[in-house]
Design goal:
alpha/beta, about 45% helix, single chain, 14 helices
Length: about 350
């Protein structure tokens, strides 16, 4: 039995993918590792094939034409055989001790006495760490105030997310069958689709299990990284596209009837994405960018008036849509302070 399928989307990852894959191999025969070579032009495909030869039954190399990160995740979900499914980016890695603890617990969920006594969690949440290796700094995001540790819970049992806390792909391990039930399919040739992966399936999750372990090690600092500020400004149209998808892919009124706390979180998640899009459009600071910012907010207003009012007047994103040049300057200054405080790119 494969307890976890790890999908590793790889595009020209030869320089760093071995650190990632080696960290996953610790799971041995209980895991499956799908190395999705997304049309790479360097040695990524060769390295993936070598891992498959050296670790048969654990590693599978998948070669496909270039479709972007979302396409790699889609391919991995289609091929996954594990009880649980996790995406690990090729420049990131897992902490060994935390990984061993996770795997031991997942084995209990899938086999033995624990499996007989309780339903399998639909979602396992773990901590993740921002690693600025070049600067020698790290910052861990935990969820101790949100979820009870190592105790199954529902969305109605959760606490409150702090302003700096939200669920990203790196923190999440979905049960594969539940993830497939959601019908999530990420757009191709589009960056930032991990936001969809970390949002759309949440209403399908009936039981959550939080492990207070610093599992995922998230590397920051590459000049070409998608979260680099200059890169995000160049790709702002893709950020806007994903923001619109997230804002429209779930009926929050329906969620609110069953899981009111989840609906609050999901609205806040849209707010964060709106803030990111609005801020980067302000940083671009030309007429076209400011027009896109206006159009984005108008689109939300036309499609969901109540959501627009919540975003504009009750959440963080409203402070990124302040009127006039002074409002824009206040927004950018606030962003700079938050960026320094929380050490994101």
């Amino acid at each position: 039995m494969k307890y976890i399928t790890f999908t590793v989307p790889c595009y020209n990852s030869a320089a760093y993918m071995e650190r990632c894959v080696d960290s996953l191999l610790i799971g041995g025969g209980g895991v499956g590792i799908l190395l999705i070579d997304d049309g790479s032009t360097d040695r990524t495909g060769e390295i993936a094939d070598e891992y498959e030869r050296n670790y048969p039954g654990i590693v599978r190399a998948v070669h496909k034409s270039n479709g972007g990160h979302g396409s790699g995740v889609n391919a991995g979900l289609h091929l996954a055989t594990g009880c649980y499914f996790k995406v690990v980016d090729s420049d990131d890695w897992l902490s060994e001790d935390a990984y061993r603890r996770l795997l031991a617990r997942v084995k209990e969920f899938c086999t033995g006495a624990v499996a007989e006594l309780m339903d399998q969690p639909d979602l396992i949440v773990c901590n993740y760490t921002y690693n600025h290796l070049e600067e020698g700094t790290a910052h861990t995001m935990a969820y101790r105030n949100v979820f009870p540790a190592e105790t199954p819970c529902t969305w109605n049992d959760i606490g409150h997310f702090r302003p700096s806390q939200y669920l990203i792909m790196h923190a999440l391990i979905y049960r594969t069958s539940v993830l497939r039930e959601t019908g999530v399919c990420l757009p191709e040739h589009t960056f930032y689709v991990d936001n969809i992966f970390a949002y759309q399936p949440l209403p399908y999750v009936k039981k959550i299990y939080y492990m207070d372990i610093d599992l995922y090690q998230y590397f920051l600092g590459r000049a070409d990284q998608s979260v680099n500020e200059e890169v995000m400004m160049r790709r702002i149209d893709q950020q806007i596209k994903v923001t619109k998808i997230v804002a429209s892919c779930v009926d929050l009124d329906e969620v609110r009837q069953k899981y009111p706390k989840l609906a609050v979180y999901m609205c806040r998640n849209i707010s964060i994405m709106m803030a990111i899009s609005s801020i980067h459009l302000l940083l671009i600071n030309d007429r076209a960018a400011l027009e896109k910012r206006k159009l984005l907010w108008n689109t939300i207003r036309e499609e969901d008036k109540m959501l627009y009012l919540r975003l504009k007047y009750t959440t963080l994103s409203g402070f990124t849509y302040l009127p006039g040049k002074v409002g824009g300057k206040i927004t950018v200054q606030g962003y700079r302070i938050a960026r320094k405080l929380y050490q994101f790119q």
